[in-house]
Design brief:
- The chain is of the alpha+beta class and 144 residues long.
- Helix content is 46%, strand content 19%.
- A hairpin with a 2-residue loop joins β2 and β3.
C-alpha cells in the first residue's frame, strides 16, 4: 500500500493543502449548526471555502443537515430511533423488516445518514407507547 501523503495541491488554485478540520456553519430553513468538517485545506483559509472534501468528509455535513431536516419535520432523532428499537428488543435488520425500509435502513437512520420517513416515525412512536403491538407486525409478516 502506498504511503499516504501529508500534502496535496489544490487543482484550481495551486495552493498547498494539508489534512485538517475546520469549523463550518451549515443552514437549513432558519436552523444553523456548526460542525467540525475534515478535509484538505490551505493554511491561509480558516473559513474552509477553499477546502477539498471526499465522501467520508462530507458525511459529517450530510448528517448535520439531515438532523436539521428531521427537526424541521418533527421526526425522531437518530438516538431516539436507536433507543426505541432497542427497547423493542429488535436488531436493526429486524426493525427494517418489520417497520419498513429494508435490511440496512435502521443502520442508516441511527447513524443519521438517512432521514426517517414519516410513516416509520409514526410506527416507532406507536410501538414505543404500546410495545405489545409489535407481535401484530410479526404475525402480519408471517401470514402475508
Amino acid at each position: 500500500m502506498p504511503a499516504r501523503t501529508s500534502t496535496r495541491i489544490h487543482p484550481e488554485t495551486g495552493l498547498a493543502l494539508t489534512r485538517g478540520v475546520r469549523a463550518v456553519t451549515l443552514s437549513y430553513r432558519g436552523q444553523t449548526e456548526t460542525v467540525d468538517l475534515p478535509g484538505w485545506y490551505p493554511a491561509q483559509d480558516p473559513s474552509a471555502e477553499q477546502g477539498i472534501h471526499d465522501a467520508r468528509d462530507m458525511q459529517v455535513s450530510d448528517r448535520a443537515v439531515n438532523a436539521m431536516k428531521a427537526r424541521e419535520a418533527g421526526l425522531l432523532a437518530p438516538a431516539q430511533i436507536r433507543e426505541i428499537r432497542r427497547k423493542l428488543g429488535l436488531t436493526q435488520r429486524e426493525a427494517g423488516r418489520l417497520i419498513g425500509g429494508g435490511p440496512n435502513a435502521f443502520q442508516k437512520y441511527e447513524s443519521g445518514d438517512v432521514v426517517l420517513s414519516k410513516a416509520a416515525d409514526t410506527a416507532l412512536r406507536l410501538l414505543a407507547n404500546a410495545p405489545g403491538r409489535l407481535s401484530e407486525l410479526s404475525d402480519g409478516l408471517r401470514s402475508g
